[in-house]
Design goal:
Ribosomal Protein S5, domain 2; lpxc deacetylase, domain 1; five-stranded mixed sheet; alpha+beta; 9 helices; disordered N terminus
Amino acid sequence: MPPRICSNPWVFNQQTLNRSASFSGIGLHSGNRVNMTIHPAPANSGVRFRRVDLEGKPEIEARVENVSETNRSTTIAKGNVKIHTVEHVLAALAGYGIDNAVIELDANEPPIADGSSREFCKLIQTAGIAALAEQREFYTPTEPIELRSGETVMTLFPDAAFKITCTSADKQGRFTQFYSTEITPETWAKELSHARTFCFFEEIEYLIKNGLIKGGSLENAVVIRDDAVLTTEPLRYAEEFVRHKMLDILGDLSLAGRPLRGHLIAVKPSHSANCEFARLIVAQMNKPLRAAQSFAPPTDKAAALEPLVDDEGAMNIEQIMKVLPHRPPFLLVDRILSLKGNKIVATKNVTMNEPFFAGHFPGHPIMPGVLQLEAIAQVAGIVLLKATEKASQVAYFMSAEDVKWRKPVVPGDVLVIEVELTKVRGKIGKASGVCKVAGEVVSEADVTFMIHEM
């Protein structure tokens, strides 16, 4: 059964697969045999990978915060669990507008197939596409987003649809190509999905020495040597190289977690630049966009009984203090940007007026890592207390595991705190949280806390 396809995918609700479908092959970089099955998933669960060959079948969400490597492909990781070369299968899902899926693998990399997304498109066509009741949440940039890194330039402008305009070339300017298209299910399937990965002949020795193409061959890649193109079949498009770059962009930018409405103009993109650009998109998503609300006390009973969380999940400081018992200077949350189900995003504006900077450290102010941990715990407490919907309760911080502090936080930084409630049993809750500054993770921890009557 072919998937339901429409020329305007932006009006549809969230989508998943109609049923599971499987494909087997070898991994490009690992050379390992791998079996892959894509399963349907519920609304708002997103796309995630599951390693069924490992104990506990660990999962990794297809989110840019989980990107660990971008050398010739995109790798996502959680702890010691990794999935290499995720971009081609993610591009197939994004191209067809599939928001929710579970990708099961019995190795550390999806099969490379022929070096394009063609086989993954066939897999989706076999499974069919199912619409879900929940609406898709598109993101249109509030202002242009730009990345400049070496010879790479990427800029995303607001637009009514999603378009990619791309120019690619190697350092010597060989095979410079240009292509531009709006991304719809039809244009994805016809104009981009068949474009194969490629490399230059002089790169092969480096790639082999670094163990990056153990499964590579002319069956799954195009090799360029001087002015010659080495391939087992004619080029599938006149601009196959730049179209594959656009395929990679589509897969990598899907790691931002929301479908985009914008016109992306990219010059000499790479996996590293794509993922950094996805981080910039996420950073703009997380900026507070709502106008400041009045702090005047309510003037009537109806106003006094307004809900603590509005329809977008945002909470101002007054609303936060109706949930948390903490008060300045120990209240480490300024605003809730979103609260959806078991996930919450909050901010803390770090100013030079913070009392802890007086002694930590004079002349070199750094926010203590333990206070970042406390901020994660306070935000986790909000999502747990909102889930219980009971008054006169407090969430007591009990323990923290896998705590990591990665970068210093200094005056002027905006701390973005992202927490997911992972388990609730009785009065005990567990959550996983990260603190970010400008899209980069500065600290992270898993926390446990207990609800107690005040």
